[in-house]
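Why run this: before we spend reagent on co-expression, it is cheaper to look at a predicted model of the complex and decide which construct boundaries make sense. The entries below are exactly what would go into the expression plan.
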Amino acid sequence: MQSNPNYAYVRGQVLPLEKATLHISDLSIQRGYGVFDYFRVHNGKAVFLDKYLERFHASAKAMRMALPISDGELKAVIQELIQKNSMPLAGMKMILTGGYSSNGYDLAEPSLVIFQQPLILPGAEMLENGIKIITHEFVREVPQAKTINYTMGIRLIDEIRQRGASDVLYQRNGVVSEFPRCNLFIVKQDGAVVTPAENVLLGVTRKNVLDLAGKKYKAAEGTVTLEDIFQAKEVFLTSTTKRIVPIVQVDEQVIGNGKPGEVTLSLLQDLIRLEEQVGMQS
Amino acid sequence: MQSNPNYAYVRGQVLPLEKATLHISDLSIQRGYGVFDYFRVHNGKAVFLDKYLERFHASAKAMRMALPISDGELKAVIQELIQKNSMPLAGMKMILTGGYSSNGYDLAEPSLVIFQQPLILPGAEMLENGIKIITHEFVREVPQAKTINYTMGIRLIDEIRQRGASDVLYQRNGVVSEFPRCNLFIVKQDGAVVTPAENVLLGVTRKNVLDLAGKKYKAAEGTVTLEDIFQAKEVFLTSTTKRIVPIVQVDEQVIGNGKPGEVTLSLLQDLIRLEEQVGMQS
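The model came back. Tokens follow.
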């Protein structure tokens, strides 16, 4: 058992991580051009892999690229990395870039890179107390694609810290969309569970939580405004690495009674159960 | 004399180009995070180098980064590459990325990469006939910085070609700003030369042309609308690699008499003369 991954896949080869490089002509380095996806590996199993691969293909297509290997080959590479790296809990990231461009602008044969990262799930304290978030006026350029462009998110890291928050929610003209790396949900006063429909990345965890919520509550995609958030009973975020995290403050406004809500914590239990079921099936 | 560059500078080392790589943990590959700048090298001399370095520093600062070496060291590296590569006419590109990030998100010690590219100046035909451009609704995320993010520009390459155009001009709500890699100028019916003031990269060639125009005509930065363009006597673009190129059609509208204008061609002569003067001084 080791804490750090040791092998990565780069343009057709499995290599020791320290040798995993791309030439400077790659369009990710030259023009920030690429898409990626990211899934969890639990006890040697890739969780919800097919859903992540489906989205990876969709992101590539939205950016006029295609994967250079088949899904079968891709799954074999993923399996090889899981075995070689032998990490009980980890994330695995796949990046597809515009490739080694001869003029530094036109697309070439895409570069596919795959590697693992250590993963720490949110601790008990975060779930017990919830987090504060801030808001920022912004919509991503290609919201339907998981592009590698995090210029805005990374520029905002300092502001998030300075304001004592854990994340930043994008909004435009008072209509909210998503976080740099997470989706948003609210529970309205009437108990309905709603997640923004437009200008968001279609998160795999977002979809799972929406399905789980639909079994117990009124649940739908829809328009969510800042005012809806301030009036909400509960607010939470979802992501692959964080599952569900309760939000108890947005900018300077406390949400509900300032504590993680029942619906939020109940859905988290449902999600963990779903992951365990899928793990046993595969 | 050789047609292709053979050496590049990567994170402190001058290397043969084929060995010029960045590790996959670099924030350019992980998050498209970086800035760059680009200047011309004529007969072994870097043209207007100090202006480009000043802008490179400003872009880095806007993205919360700083160059890892001093300007003196940077100029020595540039000189070494010019001598080793021995290209009579070339561009030189400097890229500064967020560095080798331990978690793939937080900024690290920036990676500085410098290399040369062959350069072809616009041919006589382009200057004699002018070009067609199209327009697209968009404003760059951090217009004041020369970031590596060209997601939009590269996604539009196909549309530009399909519509028989040479470039795409960004506009929002009818107010135009810039091209992915060039600035815009118009000559109004009253002879005034105007370039957009807001949401543009402050091009070095843009500034040189604005100064040159001010010596002969009324010249200023200001608001330029699509309507201003359609009513203009002349329209042209400026860039480091293209100098000045006349624009004779915007979307389906012909500009002026459909031929490159006098002011445009006169300013191009002035610019070439200025470059020659600077070349002789240095």
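The longest helix of chain B spans residues 262-281. Chain B touches chain A at residues 8, 10, 18, 20-24, 26-34, 63-64, 93, 95, 97-98, 103-107, 113, 115, 117, 138, 141-142, 147-155, 157-158 (CB under 8 Å). Bring this page to Monday's planning discussion.
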